[in-house]
Amino acid sequence: MQYLDEQQVRRCLSYEALIPAVERALIALSAGRIQQPVRSIVHVTEREGIFALMPAVAGELMGTKFVTVYERNAALARPTHQAVIQLFSATTGEPLLAMDGRLITEMRTAAVSAAATRLLAPQDARVLALLGSGVQASAHLAALRLVREFREVRVWSRTAAHAQRFASENHVEIAETAERAARGADVVVTVTNAREPILRGEWLGKQTFVCAVGAVGPDRRELDHAAMEGAVVVESREAAQRESAEIVGSGTAIYAELGELLAGRVPLPLTRRAVFKSLGVAATDLAAAALVLAGKGTGPEV
Q1: Where in the sequence is the domain holding 184, given as residue range(s)?
Q2: What is the pLDDT of residues 52-100, one digit of tens each?
Q3: 89 within 8 A of 147, measured Cβ to Cβ
Q4: Residue 143 sits in the same domain as residue 95
Q5: How many Cα atoms sit within 13 Å of 253 on the Cβ side?
Q6: Does the residue 300 lie in any domain?
């Protein structure tokens, strides 16, 4: 069975193809056409690591992502998130293709945020604030520029040197504080590994669109309670109610799944601020892996 490394996967993926692919997957997920349990997690406590299993079945294709999160790797110049995706035929159960999943995790996360931004951000959004300066900040900058024409991009990081590097590489502005980055922004993206809130609702405008991406798990949050006051949109209600401290801790009601909005089954929240709480779901991993499979000429897209 063939295994594709990250460079081979990269050649098969583009945001132009991936954004509509994850939109289709989220619509199918919300309509019940994709089977997907909430991810299973094993805590590797002695290494401060996480090992997770994320399976999904969609039509003729099924797959599982095996993903690890080792934050200590940042000090070793290694990726903190690593993954492998294994695809199977849902018809016969036979293995089809295995591939590196780190890049897929990076790109599908940003692609989902781009889909949410295209749907929920103000049409005339011109100012983007990125809170965080790592891999996901770069991915989100690339993906979101495809759905809105930003004239100003600000980046803030808890580590000033990281913000400086990101700004230099991407030709964007540095904000000295998270507040300066967020105030006046039309779209705010949080992509940090924070355990305590770094974005406060008092800094946000009435129509500011927020993509909360970095905090996954019952003990992490990037947004305070005030920032969660709005129409909260998620990929999966079941996952959000189990995995998001921001939703559970604030007692915020979930307005809709993104797939429901994309399909037109729930009206867009036009009269209040929208907050997209991203957690990452197997359905979008499978959609990305299906593009890779199709790009190799060996299978269908999801």
Answers
A1: 109-280
A2: 999 999 999 999 999 999 989 988 888 888 999 999 999 999 999 999 9
A3: no
A4: no
A5: 2
A6: no
